[in-house]
Every structure is written in C-alpha cells, then in structure tokens.
Amino acid sequence: MSQNNAQNVPIDVTARENLAAQGLTYRAVGEEDLADYLRAKQRGFLGPEPTNEAIDAERNLLDRCRAVAVYDETAAQPYPVATARSWETSMTIPGGQTPMWAITSVTVAATHRRRGIARNMLEGELRAAQGAGYALAGLTVTEATIYGRYGFGPAASVQSYSIDTRRAGWGHTDPAARILFVDREQLARDLADLHEGTRADRIGDTDVWEGHWWDAAGLEPDAEKPRDIRGARAVDVDGTLVGAMAFSIGDGPDHSSHVLRVIHLVAATADARAALWRFALSYDLVGTVTAELQPLDEPLPWLVADRRAIRRTVRDHGWIRILDVPEALARRPLAGPVGVRLEVTDPLGLAGGAWTLLQLGGQGLQVAPLSDGESAQVTIDIGALSAAYLGDVRLEELAAAGRVTGESAKIRELSEALRTDRAAHLSFWY
Ligand SMILES: CC(C)(COP(=O)(O)OP(=O)(O)OC[C@H]1O[C@@H](n2cnc3c(N)ncnc32)[C@H](O)[C@@H]1OP(=O)(O)O)[C@@H](O)C(=O)NCCC(=O)NCCS
C-alpha cells in the first residue's frame, strides 16, 4: 500500500444509496468544490468563515487526501451539509510502522444533524478503507461519546498540565542542552524535522503533513494571534538540534504572573526535554505554564522540586479501529508464548470472527479461524480490542468493565502478550 493513493479509494456505494434515499448526494470533493468544502468544514467546527487567502493555502489538500461531502441540492447555498476527509498515514505500532486510514473533518451542518448522515459517512469510510486493504483506521475526537459505536477505541491517552512555576522549582541536574530562540519559519522546520526523527520511537504517533507545523508556528494565513507565537530550539554540546518548542505568553492575574502556553514540545533526547521544560518554568514574569497532549510517561514530575505544583488531567486522544483482526495482530509482535481462542464481536459486521492465536517460543504469530466445535476462551468487542491494540489498555481492566469475557487465565495471557514497555502517545491533533 503506497502513500498518496487516497484519491483512488472509491466512495462507498451503500452509504451513497442510503443518503440518496434522503435526497442527499454523497460524493468526492473535486478542486472546484474545495472552497465550499472548507467553508462548510469551518462552520461545522464552529470556526469563522475562512478567508480566500486561507482557502488558497489549502489548495494542495487533495494531493494527499480524499475529501468527501454530502450535498442537499435544495439548500440555499452550495456549501455541503456534511464533510469528511481521509488519507493514508503511517502509524508507529509495536515492532514498526503500519499504514492506517486516518479520518478527520467529520462535520454535519446544524440544519441536518441527527438524521444519520454522520453514521452513513463513517460506516462508508470504514468500508472503503477495509475494501482498500487497510487493517486500521484512526482519528482524534471532539467528543469521547461519538465514535465507540463505530468500533473505535481510545488507544493512546494524553495528559494536560497546569504548573505553578514558582512552587514547582527545579529538582534535577543541569540538562546538557542549550536553548536558543528561533524565528517562526525556523521553528516550523525544527518541529517538522524533530517529529519525523522521533516518531518511530513512539507507539501511536504518525507522520504529519507539512502544513501542520506551519500552523503550530502561526504561519498559516488564518492563524489566531500568530505574532504571539515564539519558538525555541534545544541544541546539544555539538550544536546539533535536539529539541524544539512552540509557545505563546498571555496575560495572567498580574504583570509578574503571565501564562506561558506550550503549543508543541518535541525532544530527541532526555536532556533536550528537560532543558525545554526548565526554560519554560523559569521564564521571568511567568507564574503558570500550561501544556496539552503530553505523553503519560512524561518525566516532568520527576524534574521539578515540588510535583504538587503540577495539576494533571488525563484524557483520551488517539482512537483507532481495527478493520482486519488477523492482519492487525500479525503486524505487531506479541510477547509469547500465546495460545488463545479469541472471538471478536463487531456491531458493524466488518471485522468480527473467531480465531486461534498461536505463538510458540521464537516463532511468529499464527492466526487460524476456529474449527467447528471449538469455542472461544476470550470474547472481546472490536472497540475494546482496538483500545488495547497499542499495548496501553489492559484486558483485565476491560474485563472488569464487561468489555471482555471468558477465562481469566486466558484474558491475562492475551493482556500480557499485548503489553508494551512504553506509553503510547499521539503528539498532535488531526
Ligand atoms: C458529531 C456530528 C458529526 C454528528 O452528526 P449527525 O449527522 O448528527 O450524527 P448521526 O445522526 O449520524 O448520528 C449517529 C449516531 O451518533 C450519535 N451522535 C451524534 N452526535 C453525537 C454527539 N455529539 N455525541 C454523542 N452521540 C452523538 C447519534 O445519537 C446517533 O446514535 P445511534 O445511531 O447510535 O442511535 C455532528 O453533530 C457535528 O458535526 N458536530 C460538530 C463537529 C464535530 O464535533 N465533529 C466530530 C469531529 S471528531
């Protein structure tokens, strides 16, 4: 499966027919429709009308993505009443990289909500991705209540921080990295280079289109308060780039207590990470540092003198959906040996089935359909298996919530087999 082929993935016929029965047209967005598509997408996410300049900056969207939209020909304006966009991304999973069908920009106009348009689009996207051979689909979500019904599970969580800098102090040695300011163009390049250089080490992260970093650095035409964004880079003793941070500083309760917001922080070494945090926490006239999308194994509490100065909120972030169970399991190493008869239920009828998973010492995983008369030892729904796929969510926890049933010893065996050494993390929104 090569990249840039999203345009070749056809529109799902069932979804098109279901929506046609409601008098709606579901089709791919072409160059000529792109401006109206972008306006509808912005409206769907409660954003302002995009400027012509911002629309022009997104003209290359269809080079890599497939945008779909739903049109109501009776509408007063030509804007679509629903939007979605998808493309092939490369996600880091245990043992390497795998292609994933990424979905974003799912919106339905307030005039057309709750009549099944999103359901048809989502089910259509999943069938289309499966038909094109993808074993996984993924997305990030505005609300945690929307996508479980389509078989997605929260597989990579994040935490946000609010840090009282004066209480936090510093409890670590001097990091062996220097911090330097950079302009926003250099910041965008540094963020892009470092993300690409580090994402293979982080299960759950994916590749990113270049424009994302221009956006993070405030260089997109419609960026909010772009001139507030500052850039800092960390270099090691040889002057090599090892970390970067986009941040902005806003008003706080008084002039000596501004709020420094970390927009994005990426580091290739532990010293770079520590140096960037120390730089943020010791900024003059700043009383609070905030940061979102931080990994669950972020070492910050161990770097400061008083960990209670850090308020943390954990939240779901990277959601994935397995579309082909044998293929998805075979792509990631399991800690063996494993011998489990597994049944996967799927309310959409896409990826359910029952298999024997067998991995003997030193050999790869073999997945074979259950024979007649064999019964499953572990039963799990597709959303729960998707949540556990990256190794962060334990099956015992899902069993306690009734999402996994079966023999306790086999649940534990499979849970151990899926486990990984490091927290999964998705470092950005898409
Ligand atoms: C979320 C959104 C796309 C749903 O569109 P919609 O066409 O109204 O949804 P549907 O009518 O197809 O509803 C499908 C199912 O999702 C449920 N649902 C829809 N919106 C929901 C929401 N915001 N929270 C929880 N459930 C929701 C419906 O109740 C329905 O459930 P059921 O089929 O299991 O009975 C739409 O409300 C929207 O555009 N919201 C703002 C943008 C946004 O948040 N998009 C999601 C991006 S990640």
From TrEMBL:
Any Pfam family: Acetyltransf_9
Keyword set, alphabetical order: Acyltransferase, Transferase
Residues engaged in binding acetyl-CoA: V106, T107, V108, R114, R115, G116, I117, A118, R119, T142, E143
Residues at the catalytic site: Y147 (proton donor), Y430 (proton acceptor)
Gene Ontology terms describing biological process: aminoglycoside antibiotic catabolic process
Listed GO MF terms: aminoglycoside N-acetyltransferase activity
Top-rank taxon, per record: Bacteria
Self-association state and partner proteins as the record states: Homohexamer; trimer of dimers.
Family statement drawn from the similarity comment of this UniProt entry: Belongs to the acetyltransferase Eis family.
Record-given protein name: GNAT family N-acetyltransferase
Organism annotation: Microbacterium sorbitolivorans
